[in-house]
Design a protein that fits this description.
- The chain is α/β, with parallel strands linked by helices.
- It contains 17 helices and 26 strands.
- The radius of gyration is 31 Å and the shape is elongated.
- About 11% of the residues have low confidence.
Length: 582
């Protein structure tokens, strides 16, 4: 878990309306503190490991009532590690013990530049002003409930006529070793657990620059995984995870689909191990807590689960999302084997993806989400900025049609290329043109098929699409399907030449969004498309979880990629801003 440092800045100058002497006349109220902290200052400070309080004036410039508010309602109860202030142009570091081991600390610093002289508070004497600064460092001790704070006060000694030179301020401070204050220990608001080694980092400015450059040059290939479907479910609240259910307007993730098939076909769990997809905690427990829905619904006395310890502020409304990590290919394989050749799996998939041709599903369209909308609107956004060719390629391992719906609503033409798993052994990719005409790609080198990134973007669905499945042709979803597809078929020879050229990482860049490598089928598909290659200058963006999946990260690292953690909505929002500013 990353460290969280809260900073609150309060205005002590709003009552100073002229150049008069306002010593002990300024105001400050706890209402300002609570207003700055979403109206709940006491709860806001609890969300951080430590907090800093900043004002322009020290407490001695406040009137008695305001000073009382500061010391008893704001800078109190270990809310803040230190109160940082200035105004008096002198360095002053104080600490007053308040009981229970808590010390109210104040660091007053001078300004680095300004007038050389000023008048005293009485206004009758001109004095020389002090100049300097204070640098500070706060450390959170590994696995502890305490932290340390050190200050480096600096000032300009001598007369104003001397050269501007800063030295350690031993005049106004007791400095350890002559250069910094003695380390001050303080209690953390909550214990600090540093992120594990090799943990995911966040995208920085250079990352966005590189991705936008690839987008402008038409050199970006986006690869969308199952977790893209988690976004857009909670309306404006991007952190909110809402249940997927059979008749939801949004498509399921692969794990939600797997759990649904488990419920429907009764996949046994004896001696199985499950891991929470949200927190991926590695601690193994014999059984989950008694209140866990998963325990009562699925597990018997021989089953095990990785305990789903969620952070208290995680907004999870879904019993489905808290439990289960059974691979989709395993659960669908079991469902297929127990169907006794009656196509029950196909019938259930048609219901799940609203293609059962009933009146309820006839005009059904999925709701889209910010990630899908970004790619659907990207071609026109680039065209408006003068960047037109070549168009992008979007690869997805999802079965649903939400991406196609996003392009339709954006009024953006596209070519769809999808794999069709055939029971007759004629597995191949098919091409659907914007006019709806579908033709098999029998000759991957045929340039007359009309698949061209000079004309429009292309969507490539590696595992098939739900609006083209029947009793003879279907999705790559069961273990048998994947073995035939990834082991017995040569995908490289089935892909059209224009697509193979587009995914050449010597010239283009790959951007993985919500795509995990914990499932073996995803690792094999990457190996088939980019055999024995390090995916340098490629990026993997993963949603934020409290404990990243270390196995997944090691798989990414083996490919030469350091996964970056950020909300996918926040990520595409930032890309949109960058493109809008071109």
């Amino acid at each position: 878990m990353a460290s969280k440092l809260g900073v609150v800045g309060l205005n002590t100058s709003f009552l100073q309306l002229d150049n008069g002497n306002y010593n002990k006349r300024l105001g400050l109220s706890s209402r300002q503190f609570h207003a700055a902290c979403l109206r709940e200052g006491d709860k806001w400070v609890e969300k951080h490991h430590a907090n800093l309080l900043m004002t322009h004036h020290p407490s001695i410039w406040l009137d008695s009532s305001s000073k009382d508010h500061l010391e008893n309602l704001i800078h109190t109860s270990n809310y803040f590690v230190v109160h940082l202030c200035g105004h008096e142009h002198e360095t002053r570091y104080t600490g007053v013990e308040q009981g229970s081991g808590w010390i109210r600390r104040t660091m007053q610093a001078p300004s680095l530049f300004g007038l050389e002289t000023c008048f005293t508070d009485q206004g009758n004497q001109e004095v020389q002003r002090s100049h300097g600064y204070v640098a500070s460092k706060i450390e959170f001790n590994n696995g502890e409930k305490e932290g340390n704070m050190i200050h480096w006060p600096r000032y300009r000694p001598g007369s104003p006529n001397r050269a501007f030179r800063l030295e350690a301020d031993n005049v106004n401070n007791d400095l350890s070793g002559g250069i910094y204050t003695s380390p001050a220990t303080f209690k953390l608001r909550k214990p600090f657990a540093p992120p594990p080694k090799n943990s995911s980092s966040c995208p920085d400015e250079s990352h966005y620059d590189d991705v936008v450059k690839a987008i402008k040059e038409g050199a970006l290939v986006a690869i969308l995984g199952s977790e893209v479907n988690l976004y857009g479910r909670g309306g404006q609240d991007d952190d909110e995870v809402i249940d997927w259910e059979l008749h939801s307007k949004f498509p399921p993730t692969s794990r939600e689909l797997a759990l649904h098939l488990i419920q429907k076909f009764g996949l046994p769990h004896k001696s199985k191990k499950f891991r929470c997809p949200l927190c991926s905690v590695n601690d193994e427990h014999e059984l989950p807590p008694k209140e866990c829905w998963f325990r009562d619904e699925f597990l018997d006395e021989n089953a095990y689960i990785y305990c789903p310890r969620m952070e208290s502020d995680t907004k999870v409304k879904s019993k489905h999302m808290i439990v289960g990590r059974s691979p989709l290919h395993s659960s669908s394989q079991y469902a297929n084997l127990t169907s006794d050749g009656s196509n029950k799996l196909l019938e259930e998939l048609e219901k799940i993806f609203h293609v059962d041709k009933s009146n309820e599903s006839k005009d059904f369209e999925y709701q889209t989400n910010p990630v899908l909308d970004f790619f659907a609107h990207l071609p026109k956004s680039l065209k408006a900025k003068g960047f037109t060719l070549p168009y992008p390629l979007i690869i997805t391992t999802n079965y649903d049609t939400a991406l196609e719906v996003a392009f339709k609503r954006a009024n953006q033409e596209y070519d769809l290329v999808f794999y069709m798993n055939s029971v007759k052994g004629k597995d191949q990719f098919l091409h659907r043109k914007p006019n709806g005409e579908i033709a098999p790609i029998t000759d991957p080198n045929d340039l007359s098929l009309g698949i061209s990134f000079e004309e429009r973007p292309v969507i490539l669905k590696l595992y098939g699409t739900t609006d083209h499945m029947n009793e003879n042709e279907g999705l790559v979803i069961t273990e048998d399907n994947f073995i035939e597809y990834l082991v017995e078929r040569n995908i490289d020879r089935l892909l059209h030449v224009s697509l193979k050229d587009k995914i050449n990482i010597e010239r283009n860049h790959l951007l993985f969004l919500g795509f995990g490598l914990s499932d073996w089928n995803h690792r094999i598909i990457l190996h088939r498309l980019w055999p024995n290659q390090q995916l340098k200058n490629c990026w993997s963006i993963q949603r934020v979880v409290s404990t990243p999946d270390q196995l997944d990260q090691k798989f990414w690292n083996s490919l030469g990629i350091e996964p970056l953690q950020i909300s996918l909505k926040t990520y595409v929002d930032e890309l949109t801003k960058q493109i809008d500013s071109l």
